[in-house]
Amino acid sequence: VKSFNREMKKKKFQSIPESSVTKLSRSEIKQELVNAQRKHLEQMILPNVLEVEEVDPLFDRDSGDFSLRIKKRLEESEKLQKDLQDRIRGRMKKFGEEKLLVLKTPEGEVVKGFPEAEVKWMFGEKEVVVPKAIQLHLRHGWKKWQEEAKADLKQKLLEDVDFGKQYIAQRQEQVLLDRDRVVSKTWYNEDKDRWEMDPMAVPYAVSRKLIDSARIRHDYAVMYVALKGDDKEYYMDIKEYEMQFEKFGGFDALYLKMLACGIPTSVHLMWIPISELSLQQQFLLVTRVVSGAFNALRKTQVVSNAKDTVLERIKNVNDDIMMAVVFPVIEFIIPYQLRLRLGMAWPEEIDQSVGSTWYLQWQSEAEMNFRSRNSEDFQWFLWFLIRSFVYGYVLYHVFRFLKRKVPRLLGYGPFRRDPSVRKFWRVKSYFTYRKRRIKQKRRAGIDPIKTAFDRMKRVKNPPIPLKNFASIESMREEINEVVAFLQNPKAFQEMGARAPRGVLIVGERGTGKTSLALAIAAEARVPVVNVEAQELEAGLWVGQSAANVRELFQTARDLAPVIIFVEDFDLFAGVRGKFIHTKQQDHESFINQLLVELDGFEKQDGVVLMATTRNHKQIDEALRRPGRMDRIFHLQSPTEMERERILQNAAEETMDRELIDLVDWRKVSEKTSLLRPIELKLVPMALESSAFRSKFLDTDELLSYVSWFATFSHIVPSWLRKTKVVTTMGKMLVNHLGLNLTKEDLENVVDLMEPYGQISNGIELLNPPVDWTRETKYPHVVWAAGRALIALLIPNFDVVDNLWLEPNSWEGIGCTKITKVTSGGSASGNTESRSYLEKKLVFCFGSHIASQMLLPPGEENFLSSSEITQAQEIATRMVLQYGWGPDDSPAVYYATNAVSALSMGNHHEYEMAGKVEKIYDLAYEKAKGMLLKNRHVLEKITEELLEFEILTRKDLERLVHENGGIREKEPFFLSGTNYNEPLSRSFLDGGDSSETVLLSAPT
């Protein structure tokens, strides 16, 4: 006790609160605190006795001896267990190799308090069995000891009255003390107007059975606790509790403990606000509500009577028009004999007979209806004209609308011409006119070289700065050399270094070839002369193109330093020696003159020829030799980090600065892997506009403000708009209109982004059924669930965003949104790696195997046919083109750019087909094993998708976690898997395709 008091004084710990709610004396409280401190430290030290040799001096000797005895018994038990295992291994190793398997205990054999999974110890075919009697003996022995201890205490309480009173007093005192400790961890929050409890006190209150009831609000992540004998509810933050007790099971462990203690615990499922729903969920909600309201309105008595009345009026008007106008006109135009043959007239002779047709029946009914209502007075004729005019007006506009919309639904054809074809002819006509116009200018004496140098400009602000280019670091040294030469050409001559003469920028469309040339010019601070190919081509006489080249470089030498920039260099600098025509011969002289000018750069100062092309192999080889255009800059598609940097730079120019930090640019860069740098610049502005479109606002009020902005936009100067006062007023107006964007709005937009060319939206159905029943949905649900689960189980693979059922879609009811991820080891740069292709091959069998597992035998459908075909194509490509066969042979048997194809014998072709079949079956076996181990998860996903018709990635992760899903781990490859024989029948012997084997459902 003295040692404890010294420790309390050192820590300056206040042992008694200022306002105590107890009525105990000071000495009693002090003694209780000493006992509580000792018990608390004993509970902390006992779990760590295996690592700690010495016990803190604060404890008494009995506690220390008890801890050491526990440690000693555990060490002896561990040694005995190890010796027993060694003896078993020594006796059983003669039966075969040792194996450890994890099996699930059957439901009828599960013992309460013991795990449902058991370890199966095998030596060859022999199994080491632990008798159930031992487990039951241990459990029932502990249970028997508990019952005996309770019975002894009960008997002692009944026999000794004084002991009973003393025991009850101690228990009451302990309960009050425990309650005071819990209450000391509560406080009143005046800002929130509620009582709150420290999360550290909740487990103690549960273990001491002080909690009367609890309410859990998952939407707010809080729990309200009510203590026994107290009418107040205490607020507890679940997130804070999860952080503090993460290593001890978190809130899930607390919830299970509360249920085990019999504490009434209710979970409140609250209404989800519309603002928390995604755009798709909001659309589906509005659609279903409107559809239900429309159907309910249509079935009302008033609408039903009005519908019948309107339809009857329309039928009467139609009959009147047919009897008064259409039928007489038909009888006048079509002869009687022809109408009789077509069944449009009754016979007039007795010997003639004709069967009743739908036309005659319609005509008879219309005539009876017309005569019953025709009064042949002025009022009837007046109303007949009015009704006929209204009927014709409506019918005219209906046919006009159909004439405009039906061709779009039918596609391109004789009723609607393809706009792309019309655009092609317009572009072709424009280029023809432009070429003819250039020739006319040349005949008029216009000098193309003078025109080019008149357009010479000095670039100060390039479209894309040099530092923002993708793959710029790999070309930094060569670019610096070109810039240094343009800034100081004489330095290269004095040092005797070889100056750069020509630069060739190679890249696909949209990678920024022209922007890179302008960025280099801006870095070097030299002018740029933009020369078009048509200006240097042949003109009126032979040899004019060579003269144009000479004049171009002569003028450039006079204005040095300068950059001569030519776009699409391969259009007029192609390979020589292929043509004999005079025009092509002049083209070759043009290239020869260009070679002469490039070789003569040693006498020139500060002139660099910079050209762009998409394929540098189409340029004449002589131009690409060292000393000429030997500087080649390859512009690749940007990587994920480079795309992220481009997006952030573009966001700083187009987005509000306060919104830039709210966007997860890494996630955006993952979804824009197929976009070019020019297209990436538009993404931030599109994100912001999409977030604004999701806002609910008053259109009339917004349009009124927009009209004011349009009126005064030209009056207010730009410098005034950037002031702090105007900016603050703008923010206030945005908040007033409800257009203020939050981080949640931008995250929703990013989650709904659809990567271009990387989404599979289901299966194409040519004739979808009208009524989607549960039996009709089930195959589609199995297809989508199989794809989603196999993608989740494969490590570092594509991300499953959503899967849903779309009965109104012509592309199929089952839809999956899977985003291709280029990071995380699945892909190398912008090319697919072997690991990714093997994962893709396994993924292709997910839906096929799921249908075999869950659909009845013989009910397999064609939904997975496209994926099976894709798997066959991937396996063939891996073996023949990439040399990635199952035997890891690096031989490549086929290449698209080969000069000729080598003939292979029958035996060699059979060998190649065998490798393709082997890797195909390896992937099938891998996917089959993965889904068999997770059959329960697959069934749960299928059930929830049938019930809710939509599942997100979080829902799938939850189902996998709750149902014990077994995921694969890296390294994930097929070559190392155990392969016995293909399950499919060999098509080498029978000449048939692989035959699938039905999966047997486990009993």
UniProtKB/TrEMBL annotation:
InterPro entries, per the entry: AAA+_ATPase (IPR003593), ATPase_AAA_core (IPR003959), P-loop_NTPase (IPR027417), Peptidase_M41 (IPR000642), Peptidase_M41-like (IPR037219)
Gene Ontology BP, a term: proteolysis
GO molecular function: ATP binding; ATP hydrolysis activity; ATP-dependent peptidase activity; metalloendopeptidase activity
Cellular component, GO, one term: chloroplast thylakoid membrane
Keywords: Hydrolase, Membrane, Metalloprotease, Protease, Transit peptide, Transmembrane, Transmembrane helix
Pfam families named in the record: AAA, Peptidase_M41
Domain AAA+ ATPase: 499-639
Residues annotated as transmembrane: 380-399
Lineage: superkingdom: Eukaryota
Protein name (Swiss-Prot/TrEMBL): ATP-dependent zinc metalloprotease FtsH 2
Organism classification: Eukaryota, Viridiplantae, Streptophyta, Embryophyta, Tracheophyta
